[in-house]
# Entry
Amino acid sequence: MKEIKCVCGHVNPNGTVLCESCGRALTEEAKNEKLHDMRYEGSARRSQTYNKSIIDKIWNFFSSVKVGVWLIVITLIASAVGTILPQEQYIPNGQPADEYYEDVYGFFGELYYTVGFHDLYSSWWYLLLIASIGVSLVICSLDRVIPLYRALKNQRVSRHVGFLKRQRIYGKTETAEYSEPLRKIKENLTRKKYKIREEDGNILAEKNRFSRWGPYVNHIGLIIFLFGGMLRFVPGMYIDETVWIREGETRAVPGTDQEYYLENKGFTLETYDKNKDKEVFGEAIDKNGTIAKNFQSDVILYKESGDRVPGQKAEREKEQEDSIKVNHPLKFGNFAVYQTSYKLDEFKSMSFTLDNKESGKSFGEFTVDLFDPQNVYTFEDGYKAELMGYYPDFSGFNEQGEPQTKSPLPNNPAFLFKLFSPEKPEGEISFVGIRKNLEPLGENDYKLSFAGVETRDVSALTVHKDLTLWILALGGAIFMIGVIQGAYWHHRRIWIRRSDDGDGLIVAGHTNKNWHGLKNEISLVLEGSGIKEPVDQQQKDEVRRNEDVNDNNGRVEQ
Amino acid sequence: MSTTIMAEWSSNLLYVSFIMYLIATLFFGGSIRQKNTTETNQKKWGFIGIALTLVGFASQLGYFFLRWGASGHAPVSNLFEFTTFFGMMLVGAFIILYFMYKTTILGVIALPFALLVIAYASMFPKDISPLIPALQSDWLKIHVTTVSAGEAILSISFVAGLIYLLKSVQHTKGSRQSFWLETVMYSLVVVLGFVVASTAFTLGHYEANFQYVNQQGEEAISEYTLPALVGPNKGELLSEDVMEPLVDMPALINAKKLNTVIWSFMVGTVIYLLLRLIFRKRIAAKMQPLVKNVNLDLMDEIGYRSVLIGFPVFTLGGLIFAMIWAQIAWTRFWGWDPKEVWALITFLFYAAFLHLRLSKGWHGEKSAWLAVVGVAIILFNLVAVNLIIAGLHSYA
Ligand code: HEM
# Structure
């Protein structure tokens, strides 16, 4: 590697623009600048130095902030496009996506679906964008942080006058007297908590250098966060499943390998009550009708222990008893169980009586367990009801006249019975359901009368395991620390130097942000020292421009 | 104190704060008048302005905590409450930046902006409602207040940017910047149009009810509080002696909201044209002499500072706290819900802002325009996502 030796004796790496030590301009270009670009102290960055091999090219591409900003902006626009229509996971359930978008949104909807925007955030190109931002983050940070670190570490107190002149804040005061002003300035600097270094009667005062590392810290946080997000796709890291558990039922917790079981002791739905809850809620309750107050499942968690040999019943032990509510999941191990949905009053069983139509007399009563119906219900004196068909979610008859069921859930139970009695030992066919009592094969002597129903609630509980959470939390925390470090502190440097001719004192200042604050601080630092405040060389240009603007003010063209 | 009395006092205090901000604006305005340029005079007007602002702010805090006391939860749970809170945070952010930079001109734009936001908020139902289960969490107040504070601080960059542009943009014929700046002014007037139209018809107790067929194909009732220019899908007017709609909308479109939008634009446009007639030039051009003594460099600095201060606060509230709460309440920390996505967009936008500024040197005018776009994104998320794109967050 070619190194550059500066007049001051310091050896700089290839590509350096301003000497790390004294600040002398090392390139022709830099010598001709009016103000130095001080962001990276004119240090040697790989991306600015090499551009030959393919690796150089890739490196330079991703280390460019211009490319980074484009990636961010494209991601931003793509994200916005994904909110124009609801994403697939938010369309009303039960509707197939290929029909939904066209049905509801017409041609535009069809187009949106066809190009894949209905599932935009998991499309390959969206993930590629995010991944590119990640790569860019790594490369751009490496490209800058090391040279910046070197430059700040190697900087000398006595900077070359040319370097100071090209600082945005610069001023020279003619004076023959040095010691008194310098004493006063040092005193003020110490009060302002500057770290002071001295060399040949020159001063470098610096503070909050650590804030320069803020961007790099926050970029590391982001990289960790993105890495954590990627782990989601590793099997076993992430589980997200929903179980429906009826009141009184016990079910295995998905993802625990039949080790954990949950029993639903009862589900509660509460709504706000005008008379019991706060008076001020009255109006809102009147307007809305009902407002939900609480969804809650009282559960018991069991753990199976011991050797779980197939065919042998394992020990089940009670682990925990809890009430799962929205915003209050049940937690155990790496799992959390959430209250996500419910169904009220699902049919559990139905009761009937077997009646003689003419006399109205009952000859037996029985209850059908809708989840475990019996084949025959037998009564005294030769009466019985034989269950020939059970249709838990009855949806009508097909062309052959056979009853149909939509699902195995008892939403609309219906039954085909054969009723036996001493008078009709060969049996009579009867079809019963909710508000239905048909006699498909002709007039019967006996009928089944509806005698009652038992219902229970069902809780939908979502079981969630996410082993990536701590990595995401770590990334998020580091990101926050980095942003705060870079945003709420500012790196400030003030140089005080005797001029080379010995006829005055030069004051120059630099900060990476908040120049207003730096200027105020310099004026406080120089207070009482007799040294003039330096000027903001950039603002001088700005002011000239403003004056032009003001000249036009009275006569604005329409 | 009974909760009803607390609620009553709470809304009185909100009125007081509104009036205080209004008068404070006049004093800040006075401090930048051309005749008034001697330094002590400016200081005096500015002092009264900031004192009134502080009184208004204290009064609005009173509104906030009394309402909290009355309902038992932090009042940030519906559109009225959190928009009002956003208005309060705007004033708070202005106060902080005022004490950092001591520039009265900020108040001339920041306070009217906050007033507009609070007036806008008051157009929504103000009932104190109890919390639905999803909102019953401490994270509600932690998340919403931090997001709101972050967005308010970021909005100050819009205020500074607008001042910058009002001074720097030249209103020559065909100037694109002049056109867009005037569009910004016009948009603000449209919001005013919304407030004027809603207030006028509310005071007149206007009401028109429609029976209509909604998107799910069910019969429903729609209550209009503004005369219906566009009616709902297969709408049938139930009220008497009110205007018949000119056209009916298909079920997909929320006709009531569209109607409100049309009214806002109509009234806003009328106000705008009146102003143009009085000023005889563009609003932005009329305001240019007011800001002629502004230090552009300082405005640029304030704009950048407020993004720097606001960005971490927004990220904390809008992404990190949001993710923590989503993990607790909705089982997953991120679900690509529109509100979440727009928070991400806001985050990405300000990240782009910071990078453009530090690498491409987008200072001054460019930076000011970015600040305008940024606040448009924030307001879009605050208003439009709730009203237009319904998602999990559309509890308002
Ligand atoms: C969403 C992704 C990103 C976020 C949230 C982010 C955030 C930030 C923040 C907050 C700063 C500090 C800005 C300031 O102090 O004014 C910063 C600085 C910086 N970022 Fe990023 N960044 C992201 C992506 C990138 C990418 C992709 C690149 C590279 C191409 C990049 C390159 C830089 C550079 C070079 C700096 C300046 C460092 C310095 O001042 O020493 N950033 N970033």
In short: Residues A 65, 67-68, 71-72, 133, 136-137, 140, 144, 215, 218-219, 222, 483, 486-487; B 348, 351, 354-355, 358 surround protoporphyrin IX containing FE (CB under 6 Å). Confidence is low (pLDDT under 50) at residues 390-396 of chain B. The two ends of chain B are 28 Å apart (CA to CA).
